[in-house]
Amino acid sequence: MRLRTATETREERDDKQVVAEIMARCFIPTRLTTSSWEGFHFAGHEIRITEALDCYGAVVWPSALVLCYFLETNTKQYNMVDKNVIEIGAGTGLVSIVASLLGAHVTATDLPELLGNLQYNISRNTKRKCKHLPQVKELSWGVALDKNFPKSSNNFDYVLAADVVYAHPFLEELLVTFDHLCKETTTILWAMKFRLERENQFVDRFKELFDLEELSSFPSLNIKLYKAMRKNRRSA
Fold it and tell me: CA 94 to CA 84: how far, in whole Å?
């Protein structure tokens, strides 16, 4: 019993230490400016993100910081250089910006009403800094996928997703979108905050189509980071 308690204490300590390192990448500007922004340090750059507080999808959530930190600190195993990457639910664009700064061909996607702010943040933080100029495209989950992202031209090495599962009515459409964008060789890197039972139900549905591996867990944030790849349907 003492050993178990000691192990749990060590895990909690490790969790708090890593979370502190992740959160330390965020900073608030010390001087007032004409436009409000939040600052981040990733991939050797200062990134300035403009949020829209009246819109749920245009705020930087902790899952995005977790995914950015993972991409930056695991470049040997998950090398982004020249990789074809798409982010779904890109929001403010922070994850897409970091992936671009790490050398990827990035397509950042979200709902049409979020694209203006998304494009602004990405242009502001990647111009003359990235090997490949990132693209911004509309992607409404489950809508016109064959038209806007035809399977014949989908060749994504990575699908990135941060906090795309929450109390919204489009979970089935989200699953269809994951399935549509992935080939057998595509890797999904997905950071997820658990809030309600619906998150667990989505994970169960997700595992019907994809092999899911937990890469990291951050209990103090209630966030898990997953790697997923399409199941080999022939063997299944």
Answer: 17
